[in-house]
């Protein structure tokens, strides 16, 4: 399952961001941040108690089913009276959720989390980065293994000289991405793809901020 991976901002940073904001409405999310234990119901309750102890007034709280969904507007409307009483919103969601909510409500929005990457759950509570949304995908030539995210060095031509026994020289507990690519291509009888030279990655391939237009067929 693919998720936006987040981590809590430090208490010091939150205190600074909430300076001058006395009345707060707290919003969490029932999907990604619930799985990573950074913005579900327990985390909303925890931060509410901390804010009350610091003398803040919490006008209300809710956990949206999906914070980045278009239906978010309807749920926010149902809680409009409590939201209107607040000076600002403390949002425990990924950046997608924060921006979705900010477009719906004319209130100061304070993100309580930092969004780290898009990841996939590979074990109980363990998430691995699988995509940096770089805009120049070469998965078709690497057996479906992304070297940009799987290799610590982000090498698009590999392996490097430091790999040993299939492990990465930077993190000996991590499988070498290019060993994984080699083994995958070998199984597919496509080792010829390893001989193709990939041009150095252009991290400015698309202008920022990015936008994609879908052309109707």
Protein traits:
four-stranded parallel sheet; elongated; 2 domains; alpha/beta; three-stranded antiparallel sheet; 8 helices; 217 residues; Rossmann fold
Can you walk me through this structure?
The structure is a single chain. With 217 residues, the protein is of the alpha/beta class. The chain folds into 2 domains: 115 residues, Response regulator (Rossmann fold, 3-Layer(aba) Sandwich); 64 residues, no CATH class. The protein has 8 helices and 7 strands. Strands 3-2-4-5 form a 4-stranded parallel sheet, with helices on both faces. Helix 6 links the parallel strand 4 and strand 5. The longest helix has 13 residues. The radius of gyration is 22 Å and the shape is elongated. It starts with a strand and ends in a 30-residue tail after the last helix. The C terminus is likely disordered.
């Amino acid at each position: 399952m693919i998720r936006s991976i987040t981590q809590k901002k430090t208490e010091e940073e939150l205190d600074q961001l909430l300076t001058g904001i006395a009345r707060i409405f707290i919003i969490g999310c029932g999907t990604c941040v619930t799985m990573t234990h950074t913005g579900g119901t327990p985390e909303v309750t925890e931060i509410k108690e901390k804010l009350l102890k610091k003398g803040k007034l919490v006008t209300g709280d809710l956990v949206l089913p999906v914070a980045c969904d278009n239906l978010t507007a309807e749920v926010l409307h149902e809680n409009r009276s409590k939201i209107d009483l607040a000076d600002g919103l403390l949002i425990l969601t990924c950046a997608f959720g924060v921006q979705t909510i900010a477009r719906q409500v004319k209130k100061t929005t304070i993100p309580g989390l930092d969004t780290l990457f898009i990841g996939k759950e590979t074990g109980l509570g363990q998430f691995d980065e699988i995509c940096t949304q770089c805009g120049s995908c070469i998965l078709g030539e690497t057996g479906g293994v992304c070297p940009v995210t799987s290799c610590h060095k982000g090498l698009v031509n590999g392996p490097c000289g430091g790999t040993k026994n299939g492990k990465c020289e930077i993190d000996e507990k991590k499988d070498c991405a290019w060993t994984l690519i080699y083994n995958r291509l070998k199984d597919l009888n496509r080792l010829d793809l390893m001989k193709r030279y990939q041009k150095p990655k252009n991290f400015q391939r698309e202008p920022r901020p990015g936008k994609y237009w879908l052309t109707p067929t």
